[in-house]
Amino acid sequence: MSSGSGRKVVVTGATGNVGTSVVRLLAEDPEVGSLVGLARRIPEWAPPKTEWSAVDLASEQADLGGVFEGADAVVHLAWAFQPTHDPAATWRTNVLGSMRVFEAAAAAQVPVLVHASSVGAYSPGPKDHAVDESWPTHGWPDAAYCREKAYLERALDTFERDHPDMRVVRMRPAFLFKRESASEQRRIFGGRFLPGQVARPDLLPFLPDIPGLRVQALHTDDAAEAYRLAVRTEVRGAFNLAADPPLDAELLGEMFDARPVRLPRTAARSAIAAAWNLRLLPASPHLFDAVLRLPMMDCTRARVELGWRPERTATEVLEEFLRGMRQGKGEATEPLRGRQVG
User: Fold this and answer.
1) pLDDT tens digits for range 228-273
2) Which stretches of the chain are DSSP H helices?
3) Is the whole-model pTM more than 0.70?
4) N or C end of the chain: which has fewer CB within 10 A?
């Protein structure tokens, strides 16, 4: 532990969906003495114990050494989802930027690195039963998001071998939502002009039931608690994070009082590909392909070794998120700024 009244923790991507929740929980933790939040743009938000540093991880000139000096842990959350039409740009931020974080943390002799991996790192897997953290992490190669997450899993394999004294934790959460992230995620996946008011159950007389469309979700604050526990607990390796129940057309139909209607994968993908190619939809058809192949995750290890349990069900998470979309909710950071459209 660093000298002073508590741990010094550095959080990259501190102003995003996960970062804001992680910073808030760490700021409330009595064992944490100070926080440094890294972001491309300094926010108006001023949580306790926290100072900000403007850093662009995509830049080769990003100076992380001074920021990481004396840190007891680095929580690496920074990630760029867009531009999906320019995978070289996201590679520079997500992969090369992450490598800079890993190397700088090692150079500064930071004892703990907690990295945000994802369910998207996993190779295609079963939908009818859950897999543990030993499932292969080769991703879905056509989707940039999965390709980048999987590449960093291999990079960390080498990094851990070369730095055995550093405690490295990899979090693999399901899809993360909260009310305050609704506007950001609408812009990232649906486009900045998609009205949030379309997230009304009464506007959905039927739901497309696409083979393979069965996913897990988790409240961002529940994921943040797992990150906080990982900073404090002497654990290593990967942890699956998800809430029950899995979300599929049958469950969503019950939630929205809408009738599931079978829709072939090819028809759904063709529509998404057409909208993406016309730049009407930011989410790529390659990510859609990946989602249909993601395995269900078993979270036993997080419960047993971290003592972690989500406080909210996946249905509660989705209901909160949809309310946030309708209301244009956000937070006082640039990525999470609220906005209503329509």
Assistant:
1) 999 999 999 999 999 999 999 999 888 888 888 899 999 999 999 9
2) 17-28, 65-68, 87-91, 97-107, 144-162, 182-185, 220-232, 249-256, 265-277, 285-291, 300-301, 314-327
3) yes
4) C
